Amino acid sequence: MKTHDVVILGAGPAGLSAAAELKRLGHRDIVILDRESQGGGIPRHCGHTGYGLLQFGRLMTGPDFAKRLVDQVSDLDLRLGHTVLKLEPNGRIQTTGPNGPETFQAQKILLAMGARETPRSARLVSGTRPWGVMNTGALQQFAYLHGKAPFQHPIVIGTELVSFSTLLTLGHVGVKAVAMLEAHARITARRPADWVARIAFGVPVLTGCSEFTIRGQGKVEGVTFRRHGRERVLEGDGIIFTGQFRPETGLLTQSHLELDPGTRGPVIDQLYRCTDASYFAAGNLLRGIETAGQCYREGKSAAHAIHAALDDTLPASAAPIRIEATGALSYVYPQRLTGRGPYDPLLFKARVGEAVKGTLRVLADGREIWSRPINALPERRIAWRVPAVDLSNTHHLTIDLTPRS
Amino acid sequence: MTDTNHAQVVIIGGGVVGCALFRRFSMSGLRPVLLEAGGDILSGASKGNSALLHTGFDAPHGSLELSCMQQGYREYLAIREKLNLPLVKSGAIVVAWNDEQIQKLDEIVAKAHANNVGEVTRVDREQLRKMEPLLSPKALAGVHVPGEHIIDPWSAPLAYVRQGLAHGGIVLRNCRVTGGHFNGVWHLETSQGEITADLVINAAGNQGDIIEAINRPAPFKITPRKGQFVVFDKPAARLVKAIILPVPTERTKGVVICRTAFGNLLVGPTAEDQEDRIHAAVDEAALRQLVARGVEMLPGLANVDVSAVYAGLRPATEFKDYQITAQPDRRWITVAGIRSTGLTGALGIAQHVAGLYAASFGRLNEMEPIWTPVPNLCEENTRPYQSPLGADIVCHCEWVTRGEIVAALAGDFPAGDVGGLKRRTRAMMGRCQGFYCSAHVMALAEGKIAS
Questions:
Q1: What's the domain range around A346?
Q2: What are the pLDDT digits (tens) for B365-409?
Q3: Of the candidates B294, B316, B338, which is a domain's last residue?
Q4: Does B114 fall in a domain?
Q5: Residues B283, A138: C-beta atoms closer than 8 Å
Q6: Contacts of A250 in chain B (CB under 8 A)
Q7: Which of A100, A137, A146 minimises the CB distance to B435?
Q8: What ipTM did this prediction achieve?
Q9: Read out DSSP for B368-395?
């Protein structure tokens, strides 16, 4: 069996930017696998604009951005309709597709399978289970890939950025949402997204809603919820659960790779390397959602690490320093540091579950080496660089966010 | 029947019991007509059970339920290969979590032996640890029942219906029975017009007493018992081999942990009486309790995602046993109160009802069986995505191919609604619940089923 230099799993922004960067660095023996019939990943069905400014120098829609990503690597081996069935140690994977079962062997594999929203089931939402309850991702595919409106009067649950993009998606197929409902006291996306929803779309945004219960037998009839201590009923024929993105780790949970219960993604080091050194990971697989631009940057960075690994100039991954998130942090990544250093300035990314004001600190074996005050909101990336520091005798890094009392 | 709207036998209710009755009477050459109110078979109680093939080790001794279960168990094993139905030979362990429950284990073994269920033995803590190393150390002792198995709860009744169709039976879906009268012949009012019948079999599940009232004041009342379930994603299925059963208490049989034929893992059910016969709603508090109880029993579940939740309604009556009787003068057979054991009992119930028919209404012929194997959805056997010829996977969580979905929408008995399509293929039933594939699946289904 042929051993490829690199096999990339997932032809979205992270996977395709990594492929383009590896090509730029002189690599040609790259195979990109994607299970869909079209490359480009999630932007394929994000019909709204907002993509591409930093990567391609102009603002474009998701599908145009997806096409540009694919065009960049048109001379590489992109195989669509290929589903990976199994990840095995030391860079071997099992797939199926148009040619039937196949085994791929690679020196390095990049995992870039992206993220998806949390469905109604995993949110443990009460009520009946009629047709018409879906995530934004499914709605986008109905609207942008098939030109269909699965319902006429849907209710949107959640107020992340993607929740507001849902209003655009609905508009594309001539549908207006009944309302947007949010559990928290304020919307999750940046203001004035709620004003845009109210004024540009005429959709009311109700915060502080709890105890959602779905109604309807065959089809959705509406939702009941509590707000300001009273039970409210909203009628509608569809319910869209938006956001709460989580890494698409169906394959990883069945593999030998270690996962982080916080991010739900693979444990990586500062070089995007997984706990099996033949595997790297980048993009939304690492933690749920970031912008396509962020995924694009990570794909590029991972490509440089893979390039160094193929050159044998990457430090060994033995005896890593573990990194742990404590206090109000839901997670931090990378989850470990490898090599003895000296490190470049270390880039950490984290998130909180609830809004919190406090002090973010980095502790090396309990000793504070960096800190700064922070005002953090849920579903927003917290990213910072810690200047290179000697960690040669360190075993454990703790990243702590203690709320100010 | 299409010409005259007259049938020798009408079966009301396309749940697992109705499907098994339909198969049995079709194979006797009676060309029965099965009436199902929903858009597809299994629209009521039968869509939400725990998918187990029971030995009857804990069923009431001497009950009709026990004999139907044991006959059904035997017939399932005898016919399953010809119908391509799976069998996951998991065995079960009744696990005691405290001293009070340990005290009851000998009684459970004795009852199993009295019920003629062999190989049922006590296991101590050490043996239990060896059999199920990932079970919580709080598990103290148990009873091993090797004959309890896991099956596919939807393909089995589908196979029964297909075999009945091959033998000349007729199925009418979206056909709700709303009333009727008897004048030597039954005149049933339905949402598709009047249908006359020489004999009516009431297998209406949660509507059993309402349908029964067409014939006589119902001698039982159905109080649907709701059971909520949580389905954990595939990694959970590696945490446990056997079906983990609780020691039953007065109120409920308790929470079961079991793998599914599809490679996931179930935790449930709850047991809640309700008046509503149609709406089986889940509720967050109960689901959270099930998750917590699951994690308590099997700590590894803490790191596994919930992929689906559901609730089923079991047609319980005020009586413990099945309510199966023939009223020869009224040309009516009642098959009601088939609680949670209907999946196991169905084929046995059909045999029993065939016996009642023969005793009161005339001899039944045995036709040479026509076997109608159904598509396999079970991970233990080869699935279409594993074909050496290639696979076009549409549902990426459950690895359902385009070919499977197209096939389920075609032929002489295509899926009747979205629920039916999901039950026949598993498309959209995995961890993403349709995030990736629902638009694609619905495009394939367009014009073929009502959405």
A1: 323-403
A2: 989 999 999 999 998 899 999 999 999 999 999 999 999 999 999
A3: B316
A4: yes
A5: no
A6: 233-234, 396-397, 430-431
A7: A137
A8: 0.94
A9: PPPP-PPPP--TTS--GGG-TT---EEE
